[in-house]
Design goal:
This protein is mainly alpha-helical and 321 residues long. The chain is 55% helix and 5% strand.
Length: 321
């Protein structure tokens, strides 16, 4: 194996492992990076956009809409974007970019509202109970995806488990590995994703027809022009064409079987009898015709001979008498 072959194999492996970046995921990651840059550049107070009891105590309702793209540290930012890319891309490919962003906004605001109300009931005034980041909404997207998938088994690191348990597996991993993760908020996010999957928010969903109209407007027309990022249409037919492009192989890329022309093939000399083909090479002599009642001539000759013999014997016996 040459070096070029090895590099080609490695590039194919990396291509299979790295998911396709979609426009919705790219937009959320870009907003997160921009907000983190603003926070770092202006040295803003950490936690000023986190959700918790302060949403109701101070009247900061705007936090419910901004907290998913807000991160306190660079490590939290990078890990949350990684979780977003690997966990939310399948949902965007299933519903389209416009509907994915609307679902993301609905899941994030509902999760933030429920957690802030819970934190208020528990009298949480410490900043340790405040939460932010993309992980809660990513877990809600996973829970929503498992409600509509036909896959019954999931595999992670060679371990098989039911598909409905997939959000809880990611919940354990996120709580153990990701910084500034609040367990009650992640649990609420999974429950919100399940409620959305059961149709509890059907009145707030954006229809496919309306999303098809919205995606033709200016912000989304700009997203379509971004190179290297996949924009998923809202229409099911267009989405199928985008995700499953038609394969048009170049001439000569596939081996074909050559067939001899019909004119070059000499048919064997055949004769027909009562519409049935009979090859002359297979027949050693002429085929005797069959009688109308289906018996062969040999059988008829035997019957005639037997009949004549019996008739002569009967005449001879009658003469003796």
């Amino acid at each position: 194996m040459t070096v070029m072959d090895y590099l080609k194999i490695m590039s194919e492996v990396v291509k299979d492992l790295v998911p396709v970046i979609t426009c919705g995921v790219f937009t959320l990651a870009l907003l997160s990076c921009a907000l983190f840059f603003i926070q770092t550049y202006f040295s803003l107070t950490q936690g000023f956009l986190s959700v918790g009891a302060a949403v109701f105590q101070s009247g900061h309702i705007h936090r419910l809409f901004v907290f998913p793209v807000y991160h306190r540290s660079l490590a939290q930012l990078l890990l949350n974007i990684t979780a977003l890319v690997f966990l939310c891309g399948s949902l965007e490919k299933g519903v389209g970019t416009v509907r994915f962003l609307s679902v993301f906004l609905l899941l994030s605001t509902t999760t933030g509202l429920c957690y802030s109300f819970l934190d208020l009931l528990l009298q949480g005034d410490s900043s340790q109970t405040h939460t932010e980041g993309l992980v809660p909404v990513a877990l809600a997207c996973v829970a929503l995806t498992t409600m509509h998938t036909k896959v019954t088994k999931g595999f992670l690191c060679g371990v098989s488990f039911p598909a409905m348990a997939l959000p809880w597996v990611f919940l354990i991993l996120a709580t153990a590995l990701f910084p500034h993760c609040v367990l009650p908020c992640n649990v609420i996010a999974i429950l919100v994703g399940w409620m959305y999957g059961k149709g509890w928010f059907s009145l707030l969903e954006v229809s496919e027809a309306r999303a098809g109209v919205v995606e033709k407007l200016m912000p989304f027309r700009l997203l379509r022009s971004i190179c290297g990022v996949l924009f998923v249409p809202a229409s099911a037919e267009e989405r199928r064409k985008t995700l499953l492009p038609q394969i048009n192989p170049t001439p000569g890329s596939y081996p074909v079987q050559a067939y001899a022309p019909i004119s070059s093939i000499k048919p064997a000399a055949t004769v027909t009898y009562e519409g049935w083909p009979n090859s002359k090479s297979a027949l050693s002599g002429p085929t005797p015709p069959l009688h109308s009642h289906g018996h062969g001539p040999t059988h008829n000759l035997g019957l005639s001979h037997g009949h004549s013999c019996n008739h002569s014997h009967h005449a001879h016996s009658h003469g003796q008498l």
